[in-house]
Amino acid sequence: MKTRRQFLHHSLLGTAALSLAPSPTRAAATGLISGIEKVVLRREDAPGPCWFHPRACMIPGRAGQPAQAFMTLQPIMGSDYFGPVHWTTSTDLGKTWTDHQPAPPLGWEKLPTGGNEGVCDVVPEYHAVTGAVLALGHNVFYLGQHFDPKQPPRQPLYAVWKDGAWGQRQRLRWDDPRGSYIYTNNCGQRVHLPNGDVMMSFTFGTEGKARAVCGVRCSFDGTSLVVRETGNALTNAKGRGLLEPSLTRFGGRFFLTLRAEDNRGYVTVSNDGLAYAPQQAWAWDDGEPLSMSTTQQHWLTHSDALFLVYTRKDATNANVLRWRSPLFLAQVDTKTLRLLRATERVVLPLVGDGVKDPNHVPLMGNFHITNASPDESWVTVGSWRPKAGLRADMLMARIRWSAPNALAPAGR
Fold it and tell me: What are the C-alpha distances in Å from 243 to residues 58, 222, 306, 351?
């Protein structure tokens, strides 16, 4: 498979996530995080639906105007059952947000069978070369008031938001038989290159087979997203295979983190975002693997250090579904691809009793990370209790940096 080694010499990432956790043993050496503040964006008893998948990107300010946060989100009504995608903005670094408005191209479309094709797992990212927001998710099929267990083939769907207006709904085409049943970048972080190309990854597979993951390079002209190259396949035969890959770039290399279904998460690295080394399980710096349960991880990327945000099993959440609370972060040793155990800290804490009353613990498995300003990054999540009334708070963690993050917009 053709690769692009010249990407090695390009710099900058447009959609990463990293964060560092100071601890008594490493605070003096790292010290990048000066504090973490939990913010409730919307309480569970607020009127209206329970909002899920809150994901934001930053649009730099122009002509002395402040930067604008642009967020997509959607209601959740049941397991994998989501309402139409909405959007909202903030011009005061997330303190206040506009009313949620439907994103027309990312709504439901009626099917001849009587069901509906919706869009979910959307990630918006600002594309600096074209000044557009690329909102990329994938299709999902509903029958009646439920997720259709017989899902037709699924592919990425996207729409472009620019100058206050949405473009049309579009499908990202990939004519490769290996993705005949599914190929997607759902919930995935992407990297925008200085020439405007978009680096991402697909999880893909044929019906009944475990999914693989590959690196992907796309061109984007502000209107159309087109697959140009793909890389080697990474595989795992357990369960559904490798899922929900997220990408960042740090120190001139591309880092990929992978959800799996064998009580592990995985990481791999590439010089060009296409040719990846075999993945290795996430482990502490002493070699002990982390216990993870089919849940995504994402990057928190500071210009001075790389971090991972994740869930894992610990003593407080032993009976929580897939250990999806609390959210942790730790610094990544970029040479060994292991987590520095001494840097781990809680981003958003577990609420309730994860041992004796796990059904009332809000779950936080579908989260996103935004470099909001040089001084702070966000982790946003729509928590919910699927076995106890569905609803829970929509949350933000403000991670404040002690040194400026050069990867974030300056604000004005």
Answer: 26, 27, 22, 27
**CATH number of 5-401: 2.120.10.10, 1.10.287.70, 2.40.30.60, 1.20.1730.10?**
2.120.10.10
Predicted confidence (pLDDT) at residue 14 exceeds the cutoff of 50:
no
Contact 130, 196 (CB under 8 A): yes
Q: Identify the H or E element spanning 180.
A: none
Listed in order, strand segments (DSSP E) in 23-65 are 33-42, 51-59
Closest CA to 36 of 400, 374, 307: 400
Reported as a single tens digit per residue, the pLDDT across 308-349 is 999 999 999 999 999 999 999 999 999 999 999 999 999 999
Give how far Cα 342 sits from Cα of 26, 240, 367, 403, Å.
7, 33, 23, 20
CB distance 142 to 118 below 8 Å: yes
Contact 273/218 with Cβ under 8 angstroms? no
Residues sharing a CB contact under 8 Å with residue 175, sequence separation 6 or more, in sequence order: none
- Three-state SS at 249: strand
Report the alpha-carbon distance of residue 406 to residue 32 in Å, rounded: 13
Per-domain boundaries in the chain: 5-401
What are 234's two structure tokens?
């990474």
Reading the block at residue 371, the tokens are: 């470099």
Residue 370 pLDDT > 90: yes
Q: Using the Cα atoms of residue 191, residue 343, residue 31 and residue 349 in order, give the sign of their dihedral.
A: positive
Residues listed for the chain: 412
Give the chain's count of helices (H) and strands (E).
0, 30
Amino acid at position 57, single letter: C
Q: CA-to-CA distance for 258 and 280, rounded, in angstroms?
A: 10
Q: Determine the Cα–Cα distance for residues 113 and 91; give it in Å rounded to an integer.
A: 43
pLDDT in tens, 136-169: 999 999 999 899 999 999 999 999 999 999 999 9
Token duo for residue 264: 């592990």
Residue type for position 80: D
Instruction: Indicate the DSSP class of residue 265.
Output: E
